[in-house]
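During the second year of the project, the team shifted from modelling isolated chains to modelling whole assemblies. The rationale, set out in the original proposal, was that interfaces cannot be judged from single-chain predictions alone. As a representative example for this report, we include one of the complexes processed in the last quarter. Its constituent sequences, exactly as entered into the pipeline, are reproduced here:
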Amino acid sequence: ADELKPVVFSLDFIPLGRHAPWYAAVEEGFFAEEGLDVTIIPSQGTAQVMQAIASGTAQFGFVDLPGVVLAQAGGTDIEMISVNYQKSPYAIFSLANGGDVQDIAQIEGLSLGSGAGSITPKVIGGFMSQNGLSASSLEIVNVAPPARASALLSGQVPAIEFFVMAKPGLEKAAKEAGTELRTFLLADNGLELYSNGIGALGSYLDENPDVAEGFVRAAMRGWKFTLDNPEKAADHIVKNVDGLDHDVVLAEIEVVRNLAVTDDVKEHGLGWFSPEKMKTGVEFVIDNVGVDGTAPEAGSIYRSEFLPEPAILP
Amino acid sequence: MTSNIYYRSIFPLVGILVILIAWQIYTDVFNVSRVVLPSPTDIFFATTENFSQLARHAWPTFLECVLGFALAVGIGIPIAVALSSSVILNLTLYPILIAMQSVPKVAVAPIILVWFGLGMESKLAIAFLVAFFPIVVDTATGLNATPTGLLELAKSLRATRWQIFSKVQLPAALPFVFAGAKVAVTLTVIGAVIGEFVGSNEGLGNLLLTANSQLNGPLAWAALVWLSVLGMVLFGAVALAERFFMPWAKTASH
Amino acid sequence: MTSNIYYRSIFPLVGILVILIAWQIYTDVFNVSRVVLPSPTDIFFATTENFSQLARHAWPTFLECVLGFALAVGIGIPIAVALSSSVILNLTLYPILIAMQSVPKVAVAPIILVWFGLGMESKLAIAFLVAFFPIVVDTATGLNATPTGLLELAKSLRATRWQIFSKVQLPAALPFVFAGAKVAVTLTVIGAVIGEFVGSNEGLGNLLLTANSQLNGPLAWAALVWLSVLGMVLFGAVALAERFFMPWAKTASH
Amino acid sequence: MAISKERARCGPVSNVEPFGDFKNIEKRFDLGGGEYLTAIEQLSLKLEKGQLISLLGPSGCGKTTFLRIVAGLERASAGEVRIEGRAISGPHPDFAFVFQQPNLMPWRTVLENILFPLEIRRQRTQAGIERAKELLDLVGLDGFESRYPSELSGGMQQRVALCRALVHDARLLLMDEPFGALDELKRMEMHDLLLSIRARTNVSVLFVTHSISEAVYLSDVVAVFSRRPATISKLIPIDLPYPRQHEMRYEAQFTEHEREASRLLGIVR
Amino acid sequence: MAISKERARCGPVSNVEPFGDFKNIEKRFDLGGGEYLTAIEQLSLKLEKGQLISLLGPSGCGKTTFLRIVAGLERASAGEVRIEGRAISGPHPDFAFVFQQPNLMPWRTVLENILFPLEIRRQRTQAGIERAKELLDLVGLDGFESRYPSELSGGMQQRVALCRALVHDARLLLMDEPFGALDELKRMEMHDLLLSIRARTNVSVLFVTHSISEAVYLSDVVAVFSRRPATISKLIPIDLPYPRQHEMRYEAQFTEHEREASRLLGIVR
Ligand SMILES: Nc1ncnc2c1ncn2[C@@H]1O[C@H](COP(=O)(O)OP(=O)(O)OP(=O)(O)O)[C@@H](O)[C@H]1O
Ligand SMILES: Nc1ncnc2c1ncn2[C@@H]1O[C@H](COP(=O)(O)OP(=O)(O)OP(=O)(O)O)[C@@H](O)[C@H]1O
Ligand SMILES: [Mg+2]
Ligand SMILES: [Mg+2]
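Output from the structure prediction step:
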């Protein structure tokens, strides 16, 4: 297969340690083995991945479940064909000498640095309601992602919301500041919500089932390779992306392992998802985030037929 | 006079209409997703549906723009005077100003937040940072371009530096100052939005971000439309001020 | 002449040195976290450690700036000519240009990606969009400010529109054009960075974002420093071009 | 030279169409706020081919305005401006204007300023450059070709503007106080230069001046303007033979013409 | 008037320090590229208090340059410029300069332009405004107070510049061809205006002109400049009584002075 089919894959953000599996799949030749020549492009968050897929700039993207629900409500037919973050990466960070959030009850009445209109506060709100806390007591202070760490470290806000992958960097900065970081991962405290996985346009999937199948298989092999050989995977991504620190990448891979490898995955393989959990996830999003337009059916959100056979176990 | 008003309103509308129609056709024909680029009608409905919300958020953004612009003028013109009055200051300050100008403001937002907090101040600081440079460069150029004859007249009368500046150089530089101000005022809109991105709970930039992260294309673009209208209004205000302050200039254009 | 060169290099350095020292003292005394604001020495070490990386990424950014600027000049000046040559065009085009200018480019980046793809083109488009407005406004102002005496001379000779423009209006407007170009060239730096934020695997903007996301303050600020140096170099190039194209102007400043 | 002497007699030589025919010209300036200033009223003048008419009149009466109307730079509020029988609408390609201000381009050297009209007419040839240099010589500016206007004295700038008007063969020269900033010696040289060019090329000239003796020395006809609103109060045909000689300035006929013009301008001797 | 008549005699009246003392002035312009242009060489002149000296000379010889040096706008390359015994360094507060160009501010009305010097000296009073209006009247520009310079003719602009120089009581008037763009009648009126102001205020005047008769009519002394590099080739004391009368222009003594100046300027009659 010397004629490789060019395919563009859009990350959910700029390439960071958490994205090592995708680069591993490229560098180890897994994609090529499926006849694919994959280009990985960065983006700036959910909206842009969706726009890239919807406009055909990218054929596949690393999309999150809430984003797909919103995109479908917005009139696109993006569907998920794998779930890689079995746990949501939403985390609340605080400093030991600041907010010191260690327990779910402490979220109530918290002043939280988060993004303007970001869906995360709504997810947290839903999570609080599920746990009998008053969601409206949460005070959201809008701080842009690049400024959030500064806002926390300089004491402008007692706590911030970030993906849990920020933990290693924040931990280091906290230590330098002479204090300790507190990480509160929602998923470890009872939040049941699928997060990121591979997404593509339904119409594209209809026309290119083989490509999709090959893509998912190769990607899952990349994931497995990364979990098994974090050092090598880190080398791969650091080689491709300037500015990445090897140690930070390794630390992120470990954080991601916690999100990606659950009991379900150990049983059914990487990328697997259960329709029931999908359904509860979609409902959670519709109830708590709210959608503009017609809320999609849970069943239209995903397709499981492209998951690798046999399953790739971690 | 009446035909003048007719003129002045008909052509802008025609221009915008042509663009809107082309846009509508483009989105319809290519079946562009609303998430990527909503059609003008989508945006129109989003605007009417969310009118009060948009209006509510337009106010703080408008305020940030006006105050940020005032800051840019109030600080930029004195800097320009300093630059043009002394070669040493010019050489010392210019590199620093250029450095401040060519650094992406989003990247320095963290330190601005630390210094100015999460309130209005940090937004003003960013709007100022984004807008002051055109005023400085244009005004300094204008001050240096004062007709030598007028300068010598003032010098021969032993005018003080301040008199030379206020009575000769500044009026002579007004076309430059207003050119800079026109650019600056549209930049404050962008500055205000960046400021709101960085840390705010209100404003059109904020609404834009919210709509965007909810993949609500029509509302996001409605916010963009409001921002551009805001830009036009502010630009128009500066153009009006130009006419007012330069009654002697026969305005061939604008 | 030699004292001139001495002058021209010593003062900028002094200015920058003063700032660096103040900065160093500030970070040391207040024990500012390196994530919030690294000290100049932190940044210096980050620069030396990552020198080859920074240099490698500076090149595409530099290219984007230069080409984006060329586009802004090449398209901006004709637009300015159109604006200043016809009231109708002026009224029709200006609102559209202002709308384009006052919309945050980050927000329209996705559609630009769709139209121009992931390559250099989209970055150029953004750099152009960010930079063209000052050139248009300043050039149009300059063209309208041509001394009437010279215009009438040309008219009395029945010069064509093009001749009037190229031989009278443009040279007369050069101080304005260069003021606009100076602002524009620093804006292209920002434009290039925005373009890189949106979809690119290289460039200083990209490196900046990566370093930022890893909370690597020193490297992020090293990238910022390079960006400002890039801005200064480009600005200096325009200032040099100004001297070259306007030999008759006694440059009091710069 | 022979031709010039022939033409030297003033007044309509024949009944054919005059070169320039200006009838009942009126010019009102809108000062805004409903105010108007009438600069020219009921002004009529005929200019024969090859004729040199001087316009004398009080400062601010409307001489420049009249010249600008003839040049097509300004529209008359009423009246007719015809050149060779055709009503003009805008500048004529074969006219040259020496403005009251030098109007030099600060970004062009002296030589480049002079070559400007040739450039506009796409006639910038080696011959043109030679001619420009020759003119510079004739007005006493040799060696200043590559200087910028800001390095020249007022009178030197005026001479450059003169060269610029003479560099192409215009059929009508409109000259607005072209020698006002020159010393008398230079001025007299310029008079002879202008008259010899006129004799050679048969160019028609409208010449605004404040110097009565200059007007008399140069002209076929001196047109004396009234105060604003300007109209022509008298046409004085100058019946002195061409080529004019400087000695003529002291002849009775000459001083008689001067005296008449002075009287018309209100100067009582 | 009495004082003026007294002062009318030319030449050093006493042995005390002259008002202005200019010794061996030299001015070289750096043209770049190692080239220099010597505009003035070894120029010496004494100006008594209340004296009016006219400077006559060929165009481009260095008259404006000399005036600019006296005004403190330009530095002499060599030589001494003393006013009341003190070497000058920069403009003097009590001088007024009428430039060769009107140099009006396009953004100010006529009246506001005239008031400019008073504003600079923080003397913009009601009396000053009255005086400005009076001057406008005297130069024949009543009714034009609130017009902009672009709405004026060349000669009208020059008159506004004249008013601007006269609006405050200067002790030295530096006038660079101030009446060059005026018609003869207006010019004669201006001559009398200048002389009467001089008589009233005892102001000293350096007056550049190209008109020989103007120089003779106005001056205590006519200084004739050589061609560039300029130096003074002759000082002609004008021994006509003040107040000057227009009839004097035709007197033998007057024309004799004119003739001498002409001869010095190279005009052979
Ligand atoms: N653009 C204008 N707007 C209003 N009034 C004007 C304008 N141009 C000229 N005028 C008026 O028209 C009259 C005639 O002006 P013009 O320049 O023709 O005079 P002129 O005879 O050339 O005088 P001078 O000998 O002083 O140059 C003047 O009173 C002047 O104020
Ligand atoms: N800034 C300058 N740079 C170079 N040369 C100059 C400069 N200013 C004047 N000159 C030269 O100095 C000489 C004298 O100029 P100046 O203006 O004093 O003459 P002027 O006697 O006033 O002549 P005019 O009667 O024509 O006004 C001229 O040859 C001129 O070219
Ligand atoms: Mg005139
Ligand atoms: Mg002079």
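Residues 161-198 of chain B form the longest helix (38 residues). Residues 106 and 136 of chain B are 21 Å apart (CA to CA).
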